[in-house]
Amino acid sequence: MKEPNMHYGTGRRKSASARVFLRPGKGNFQINGRPLRKYFTREADHKIACRPLETTNTAKQFDVTVTVRGGGDSGQLGAVSHGLARALVACDRETYYKPLRQAGLMTRDSRTVERKKIGLHKARKAPQYSKR
Length: 132
Known about the structure:
Strand content: 15-25%
Order of helices and strands: EEEEHHEHH
Mean pLDDT: 94
Distance between the termini: 70 Å
Largest sheet: 5 strands, mixed
Shape: elongated
CATH architecture: 2-Layer Sandwich
């Protein structure tokens, strides 16, 4: 059952899907039961995941719990960021929507892997052409 002051957002990117729960707290960030720094080891990834919190200056106001499935590192990272932005907007739309929208964090990145075509090696890579 949902707690009264808990907010939820779903984020998607490529084939990854993230469920993000926000609770008032001290800034704990857990992904699949592990701390953010253990789940995403690169420093650049931490900045991308926390960008919605930095944009709204709420990094130490909320505890974030994320469940993410599918995709790879890049897709999961984008899904976490998107879901976090949506959860913040669910928390307080009037305050957070405009800065998150201007930062480009509210738009779902719809780019996915292009399917392989018949007669080609990959989606666009064709066999080598020989004129003679």
